[in-house]
Amino acid sequence: SIPSIDEIRCKAFDVLGKRPCLWQANVCQAILEGNRDVISIAGTGMGKTLTFWLPLLFRPDGIQIIVTPLNILGQQNVETLEKAGIQVSIQAILSLTYRTIVVNPEVLMRENGIFEQLFKNKTFMSSVISIVIDEAHCISQWGSFRPEYRELGRLRYLQRHPCTIMATSATLTPSVLKDIKNVLSL
Fold it and tell me: 43-74 b/e with 16+ CB inside 10 Å = b?
């Protein structure tokens, strides 16, 4: 069952030492319901990141995938390790060792890459609570020189067992919001 606002606030305070605002608890509930996508627009420093972690408190087996505009060097590191025969922790990911996976769009959307395999794995996907697109305005603003941001729309089609997609940013103008909804099929 979905926790109440009070349950979310109490557990967050007990575990994280933070008491979520009403909007943060509402976002947590929406993610845990799992039947709709979520867009969170809140200013810098207002606590958007807390909304990524709250669902983990109520799904002990859950995984959150956080997509951030990390440096493209992450992709180069993955390629170097794979060339050396190192599987870049896919086994640890498949065995559900990690509860949070932070990844950039280049690694997430790599054709025939790790995540394409993971998205087809029923056991893995049944544990994924949501895919969070942090700094979602980058889809619109950076998509021309980081094309994988525009490719995030393929997430829907790569997953055999779809999960909630959450887009979050402090800076979503109406035109950028419209673009994000279009790209992500929200």
Answer: eeeeebebbbbbbbbbbeebbbbbbebbeeee
Residue ranges per structural domain of the chain = 5-184
Q: Report pLDDT digits (tens) over 93-149.
A: 777 777 888 888 988 999 888 898 889 888 889 999 999 999 999 998 877 778 888
pTM comes to: 0.85
For 158-183, the pLDDT digits (tens) are 877 778 999 999 989 999 999 999 99
Fold entry, domain 5-184: Rossmann fold (3.40.50)
CA distance 32 to 12: 15
Strand ranges in the chain using DSSP code E only, listed in sequence order = 38-41, 63-67, 100-103, 128-134, 164-169
- Cβ proximity of 16 and 47 under 8 Å: no
Alpha carbon distance 11, 54 (integer Å): 9
Does residue 3 contact residue 11 with C-beta atoms inside 8 Å? yes
